[in-house]
Fold this protein.
Amino acid sequence: MSDNVILSLRNIRKRYGAARPADDFSIDILRGEFFSMLGPSGSGKSTILRMIAGLEHPDSGEIRINGADVTNVPPWERHLGMVFQQYAIFPHLDVAGNVGYGLRRSGLDRAARADRVSELLNLVGLKGFETRRVTQLSGGEQQRVAIARGLAPGPDILLLDEPLSALDEKIRREMQAELRSIQQRTGTTFIYVTHDQEEALTMSDRIAVLNQGRYVQCGAPEQIFRAPATPFVARFFRGSNLLDAQVSAAADGRRDVAICDRRIALADNGRPADAGQIAVRGEAILMGPAAATADLTLEATVVSSTYRGLYTSTDLRLPDGQVMTATQSGGQPLDVGARVAVGMQAGDIILLDADHAAPGAN
Ligand code: ADP
């Protein structure tokens, strides 16, 4: 295993009755990365995180941290920190007491512990808050305390389970930027669980998209956003259109794709040659004069068109009856029933794999 891998999950299975929060789940997480597990509620994210923490035990499979098998090692010997959605701070302790809680058995003397607490409070933007009562802090401040407490003992990995979801929108956005900055400044590996696509896209080095205890795609945010692997991932990132298409292998190794009987040759993106669906993002759809010179041009009928401030959203019916949504920044709404040319560039048409497929360990 590469030295660069800090955590390795190998063929993890976990069942609760009919639920399978981990179904042969394998993944490698790299030292110092901000790694997010993204998926809808019930996809297994929290259970997998709790197994990494040692709070749940897998039915089978292996968990390795820094190359050592920790599958049967208790949580407190795994050198991990945890931050949960519920603030989980101790109301009877002041801020310094909370942050320093995990340092009591660290072997540091009182002065060294106080220095470490101040350093962490600085890091999370709570300088001088040592003697404040935690019950008097705002939700965002309480979560900063929880993050400082998780980081205080210098864990190899910080596990975060939807830590921002109880905060209001504005604070949440601020905290996203700040969490990313804290992660970069400390160099600690963060494993972050969320159902919020924007949160994962904003903060992560890599994202694994989970569906029913398996990950269906893992990669850099832009890669997943721009080139979803399956219909599930495409639907999860709002703004993608899924269209049925006839896909076959072309002689030169490319893919021959027909949408409404218009043909286009696409580069082989490693997806099966018989995949029957493509994704195209709404903002990549060209309309009017720009559509005429696109790699693929179709005639469509406007079903509805709505001005939404930053963009105009237009539902378009294609000749074979499929409807897709184009979003144009600014723009004027179009008349319902109008015939318009719509175009797509080859690089914006993403061939999808079938939903049942799950990649092997990366
Ligand atoms: P997520 O974090 O993605 O919302 P979870 O890991 O919490 O998903 O849950 C995955 C599935 O496992 C769900 O169907 C959930 O009901 C089930 N599950 C999780 N924990 C338990 C448990 N302690 N007992 C029974 N079922 C559970």
About this structure: The first helix runs from residue 45 to 53. The chain has two domains: 5-228, 232-351.
